[in-house]
Design a protein that fits this description.
By secondary structure, this protein is an alpha+beta fold. It has helices at 2-11, 26-33, 38-45, 77-92, 101-105, 111-117, 168-172, 185-192, 215-218, 226-229; strands at 18-23, 51-58, 67-70, 73-76, 99-100, 122-123, 129-130, 138-145, 203-206, 209-211. The protein is 32% helix and 18% strand. It is globular and about 50 Å long.
Length: 234
């Protein structure tokens, strides 16, 4: 079964990975194209009738949330792992023409939206995906593929909201970027985008790595116990 081939390969890197699939039918394709420029639309058109395969890496180690500077570039350890898996999948299934959706769309399509549509969780007040088991401790990525997964039921949004509306994330945010109805991205990015910024809440780990502010995530009671992230310190 094709779906099992994909998931088995991913599990060699991420044993507890979560998955979701969306069919790139005409309706979804048009919805995505609304955010793309002409060149990006042309790239996406090659995959119409194929699928979006969304998968996530549960964050069960503090090291996965380190941001690093290398050769003038900035990358998150978790994202580095996810991107390596995409390269590996593309090599394993060359006829599928697997590509990272972020690379095609230049990060214009929100991973949270796709993960919600695929039934992996629901968006919390902290504006991130909340998974029933792992809560906000998930890093997501999406690939586009020409493959059609006929052997599984396509993803459907969850019927029940994972967020319990406790308000802890709203109270924890140091810049009031959250409310029950709004997310002010410019406020959030003002404190986490760079450790060099005077107002940044990033915590330096080494001269080339740091952990950004994630007060809203750490305050969320859904999923993984925060204590587990810090076991290495004990």
């Amino acid at each position: 079964m094709l779906f099992q081939e994909y998931t088995s390969h991913i599990q060699t890197f991420i044993p507890k990975a979560i998955y979701g699939v969306l069919r790139l039918d005409e309706r979804l394709s048009l919805r995505l194209e609304e955010r793309l420029d002409e060149k990006e639309k042309e790239k996406m058109s090659l995959y119409k009738g194929g699928s979006l395969f969304i998968f996530g890496l549960p964050i069960d180690s503090e090291a996965l949330w380190f941001w690093n500077h290398l050769n003038g570039k900035r990358y998150l350890t978790a994202n580095h792992i996810l991107e390596s898996i995409i390269v590996s999948l593309a090599e394993m299934f060359p006829a599928s023409h697997i590509q990272s959706l972020d690379r095609i769309s230049n990060h214009k399509i929100a991973q949270v939206v796709l993960a919600e549509m695929a039934g992996l969780g629901t968006r919390g007040w902290n504006n991130v995906l909340l998974h029933p088991e792992h809560g906000a401790y998930i890093q997501l990525t999406t690939i586009v593929t020409k493959d059609v997964f006929l052997d599984i039921n396509y993803g459907r949004p969850m019927d029940k909201d994972v967020c319990i509306k406790c308000g802890r994330c709203v109270d924890a945010c140091p810049v009031n970027a959250l409310s029950p109805t709004d997310f002010f991205a410019f406020r959030c990015s003002s404190v986490v985008a760079s450790p060099e910024k005077i107002k940044s809440k990033a915590v330096a780990v080494t001269s080339d790595s740091y952990v950004e502010c994630r007060a809203c995530i750490d305050s969320c009671p859904i999923g993984l116990n925060i204590e587990k992230l810090y076991e290495w310190k004990k």
